[in-house]
Amino acid sequence: MDMIALPICSPEPTETLRAGDGSISRELWRVPTDEQVLEAFLRDIFETHWEGIRFGPLIQGAAYEWKCPSAPTKIDLMDGYLTVHFGRGGHFHLCIGENKGSEAFPTPPELRAHRRPSKAQIFRGYGRDGKPVTWGFEMWNGKDEPMISIFFANPFIDDDDTLANEPRWERLAMWRSIAERWLGRAPEPIDEQGAGFRGRA
After folding, report:
1. What pLDDT is stored for residue 33 in this prediction?
2. 166 CB contacts (<8 Å, ≥6 apart)?
3. Which of 93, 107, 164, 187 has the fewest CB atoms below 10 angstroms from its CB?
4. Is this model's pTM higher than 0.85 or not?
5. pLDDT value for 201
6. Among the listed residues 122, 156, 128, 137, the one whose alpha carbon sits nearest the alpha carbon of residue 19
7. How far apart are CA 162 and CA 121, in angstroms?
8. SS (H, E, C) 11-70
């Protein structure tokens, strides 16, 4: 894997979404969809932070938030597909580049364009109290279909997937590590100011 320049985008959000009352609902940092960048980023997420993430596709009618069964036993890249292996825990494939196919069975151009990511972003979502409540990454293919959402470790959710009685702020270490490395963004007090999913209406 070639080295890439870090950070991959400006520390300031690429876009800020607001609710009807003008409060911030989401901050977005656009991630380049180059194969090299996505490979390096996803390797870091799954190799370094696998214990704390939830991941899977979010589509209309379904939301998957799986935990890694273990640390990846192997991560490889072949013909545009990144494959994350968990040994007896299975594996998944994610197209992050040009899927050319074989000489005998080349991938048609329209299918290559469909499979390749068209948009990827890191996000910070805000709760009803106007403070951060969720942090993560999401990516879409060439037809704007969701490919994967990754939720970073959350101080308001316990290991058993229930809401925490008290925030566990140490879980923000993942977000802060990712924000500093990939966005050049220093730790911020606002991440520890929210009431979580029990925030006021």
Report:
1. 97
2. none
3. 93
4. yes
5. 47
6. 128
7. 26
8. CCCCEEEECCCCCEEEEEEECCCCHHHHHHHHHHHHHHCCCCCEEECEECCEECCECCCC
CB 174 within 8 A of CB 49: yes
Mind listing the pLDDT tens digit for each residue in 22-43?
999 999 999 999 999 999 999 9
| CA separation for the pair 60, 164 (Å, rounded) | 27
Pair type for strands 74-78 and 62-63: unpaired
The one-letter amino acid at 90: G
pLDDT digits over 175-198, tens only?
999 999 999 999 999 999 999 987
User: What is the per-residue burial (b if ≥16 Cβ within 10 Å, else e) of 136-161?
Assistant: bbbbbbbeeebbbbbbbbbbbbeeee
pLDDT at residue 200 is higher than 80: no
